[in-house]
Write a structure and sequence with these properties.
This protein has 16 helices and six strands. By secondary structure, the chain is mostly helical. The strands form three sheets. Strands 1-2 form a two-stranded antiparallel ribbon. Strands 3-4 form a two-stranded antiparallel sheet. Helix 4 packs antiparallel against helix 5, helix 9 crosses helix 15 and helix 10 crosses helix 11. The longest helix is centred in the first third of the chain and has 27 residues. About 2% of the residues have low confidence.
Length: 378
């Protein structure tokens, strides 16, 4: 709050308080002249007015509320919050800090989280034979706290955090086989992830299916943990300005020729050859998708030789992707859920994925591409 509004609210509050107190004291001190019968001489519709003292219980409550207001100003930052922090405190992240509504919220969240983590350790980790994760979680939490408090954290601190996170992978795999862990994980998924990936986790256009075995950044427990902790920012550049509309159409035709779900398209042989040349230029598509077009999990580049598409694999959709690019964001959940809940969520997602070994798809050879073109042309 700015100094102006802080001052305005403070001055208005004090003026109201002083006015109410002044009126009350004036009424208490005022002694009107009374008639012989004890009335003030005022009559309304035959009703005479007496001058009786205010009820003591009412005065106690009234003065008590005024005293409570003054005490509130002392304990809490009610007067000039930018200057007076009050004397009330709460504990946040192991430190005693001045009371604010924000700090009180964080303190209550930490208290509730303590109840959750205690239950997590006793009733979930222990029963899943994963109690070894407790020590790793404690070390990870300490490293994360150091990162939050440090304006200039050590250069290797993030590497240490990543290492500790990876050490949780075996325990995530154990949790993925535990009924209670999956029950909690499913609730976390429905509350936080279903809005994008769907309640059945099968995704939608632009949102990955989490129940198959095709992963942009890897589907191992360690990969899922990293994705949930840090989030992902995927980007497919727009290529129309670099390769032109003709280049967009040519590369799209080439991608169609090597993909696994386009047998019904009549392919243009000349465009396929031109697109292949553009694709394989060192600074173009091959840089992320690789010479075999199978993509790279390190960059989140998808495999273009299968029949799984995030935004659609028809000719016009591929052209649109090349023209304008794509941008996908998976938010980080570390600061929102915490390490224990992320473990449960990772275990649930890991349990959903199809771990059936799949034969490695081979990129079609030039002969196969030519045969496909001739077949569809006939």
């Amino acid at each position: 709050m700015t100094f102006f509004w802080s001052s305005w609210i403070t001055i208005l509050s004090i003026m109201c308080w002083a006015a109410i107190l002044g009126v009350l004291l004036m009424v208490l001190k005022y002694k009107p002249e009374l008639e012989d019968d004890g009335t003030t001489g005022h009559a309304y519709d035959g009703i005479k007015e007496y001058d009786k003292p205010l009820p003591k219980w009412w005065l106690v409550i009234f003065f008590g509320s005024i005293a409570w207001g003054v005490a509130y100003w002392v304990f809490f930052p009610g007067i000039f919050p930018s200057k007076w922090e009050g004397i009330a405190t709460v504990e946040v992240d192991g430190e005693i800090v001045p009371w604010t509504s924000k700090n009180e919220l964080y303190s209550e969240l930490e208290s509730n989280n303590k109840v959750f983590t205690d239950n997590f350790e006793k009733n979930i980790l222990a029963k899943a034979d994963a109690s070894g994760a407790t020590e790793t979680l404690a070390a990870l939490a300490e490293l994360q706290a150091t990162m939050r408090r440090s304006e200039t954290p050590p250069a290797d601190l993030q590497d240490q955090i990543d290492k500790k996170t990876a050490e949780l992978s075996p325990y995530v795999e154990k949790l993925s086989e535990n009924r209670n862990a999956l029950k909690v994980g499913s609730r976390l998924f429905l509350q936080n992830c279903a809005v994008c990936h769907g309640s059945n986790a099968k995704g939608a256009i632009g949102y990955p299916n989490l129940t198959d075995n095709d992963w942009l950044y890897g589907g191992e427990a360690s990969n899922i943990l990293t994705t949930l902790h840090k989030g992902r920012v995927g980007g497919m550049a727009a290529w129309r300005d670099q390769i032109g509309e003709d280049g967009v159409r040519a590369v799209s035709e080439y991608v169609l020729s090597i993909s696994g779900n386009q047998p019904g398209y009549e392919l243009d042989k000349a465009q396929v050859a031109q697109g292949e040349a553009i694709f394989n230029e060192p600074t173009n598509c091959v840089l992320c998708h690789g010479a075999d077009a199978k993509g790279m999990t390190s960059t989140g580049a998808p495999n273009l030789t299968d029949n799984i598409w995030l935004y659609g694999g028809d000719r016009e959709t591929i052209r649109e992707t090349l023209r304008y690019g794509r941008a996908g964001v998976m938010p980080e959940w570390e600061t929102k859920l915490g390490n224990e809940r992320i473990m449960l969520l990772a275990a649930y997602v890991y349990s959903l994925s199809d771990k059936t070994p799949q034969p490695a798809a081979k990129a079609p050879t030039a002969t196969q591409i030519a045969t496909t073109i001739e077949t569809t042309a006939n």
